[in-house]
Design goal:
Layout lengths: L6 E3 L4 E10 L3 E7 L5 E7 L1 H4 L4 H19 L12 E7 L2 E7 L5 H10 L6 H20 L2 E2 L8 E4 L4 E4 L6 E2 L17 H4 L10 H16 L6 H13 L3 H8 L10 H13 L6 H11 L11 H12 L1 H8 L1
Antiparallel strand pairs: 1-2, 2-3, 3-4, 4-6, 5-6, 7-10, 8-9
Helix pairs in contact: 4-6, 4-11, 6-10, 7-8, 9-10, 10-11
């Protein structure tokens, strides 16, 4: 177990841990002093939790960290496309470790602060952030991966530029592997095919990430509300684990629960109108419906198609501002 004041030595430097910023069963993130490099975020495998897991699971944790480092290492610094920058990496205590740029908290914390101050994100800002996350996913897909864990906690805010950056790539799965895979990700932000298995496993592709992008869009526009569909999946997972999908299907008489109920669509539209500016709430709702389609084949095919729908919803004034 690591503590404040410990030194982590990676390939390019030494980092003194100061305070833990975040943690999960799989990893922990610390604020650290990198000397001349300034403050950084140090991401370590959660060894304390890892030692309690089965040997096969332990190997998977180390593999996920190594996969994240491999992906981030291939990104040119000038071409991160709203992806958190990898500054250094190596081994700590025999496990993969990395130094990342230190940002200003995640989207979930930012939304909570906005709500506490009675401030709204607004449709124009929501569309701008959606475009940034879409660009990040496009980069992930371009490098041959599907992300599979898009959620507010994995979107970090750069306060200096008021932009979002995607982080945490341990769940990435190769797009070349079209076969069914084991369960991965977070139940409350998953597409139907990612939560409900088909036969031996889960059949996902790049369009699976687009469903989560739609859930993020709903979350942004509605001041942090989440879809009832997502909540039902999360509740089923907490109560029944891997049997949760079957339990939820049984509760719906064998049918999938609706991904976007009509009253939720109306609520989204009302929120969009309240903070629309030059943007088009009706076009935004059409985009939301497209992203949240239950079947993968009914969602947008690629990032460019989504980008065009975002531009249509943002309106001509937004296009002029981006070009200026």
């Amino acid at each position: 177990m690591v503590h404040s004041g410990d030194i982590v030595t990676l390939a390019a430097g030494h980092y003194r841990l100061r305070e833990q910023l975040a943690g999960s069963a799989y990893g922990v993130v610390w604020r650290a002093d990198g000397g001349a490099a300034g403050e950084v975020a140090i991401k370590l495998v959660n060894r304390e939790q890892m030692t309690r897991a089965e040997p096969t699971v332990q190997a998977r944790w180390a593999e996920c960290a190594a996969r994240e480092i491999a992906f981030l290492s291939r990104l040119a610094p000038w071409d991160a496309r709203h992806i958190v920058r990898l500054l250094d990496h190596g081994l700590h205590d025999g496990l993969p470790a990395m130094a990342l740029e230190l940002l200003d908290g995640d989207l979930a914390a930012h939304m909570a602060a906005q709500n506490a101050a009675a401030r709204r994100i607004g449709l124009a800002q929501s569309l701008a952030w959606l475009a940034q996350v879409n660009a990040a996913l496009a980069k992930v897909h371009q490098h041959g991966w599907r992300y599979l864990d898009l959620k507010p906690g994995n979107l970090l805010l750069d306060a200096s530029t008021h932009t979002l950056k995607l982080a945490d790539f341990g769940t990435n799965r190769s797009l070349l592997d079209a076969g069914a895979h084991t369960y991965t990700g977070t139940a409350s932000w998953q597409a139907p095919e990612q939560f409900f298995p088909e036969g031996a496993g889960h059949l996902t592709d790049a369009r699976t990430d687009y469903f989560a992008l739609g859930a993020i869009f709903f979350y942004l526009v509605t001041d942090g509300a989440t879809l009832r569909y997502s909540g039902a999946c999360a509740d089923a997972w907490r109560a029944h684990g891997r049997d949760g999908a079957a339990q939820l299907l049984a509760a719906w008489n064998g049918a999938l629960p609706p991904s976007l109920a009509e009253d939720e669509a109306e609520h989204f539209l009302q929120c969009a109108r309240a903070g629309s500016g030059d943007a088009d709430p009706a076009a935004a709702l059409a985009l939301l419906r497209s992203l949240l389609a239950v079947r993968r084949q009914d969602r947008p095919r690629h990032a460019l198609e989504i980008s065009r729908m975002i531009a249509a919803a943002a309106g001509p004034q937004a296009i002029v501002r981006r070009a200026a």
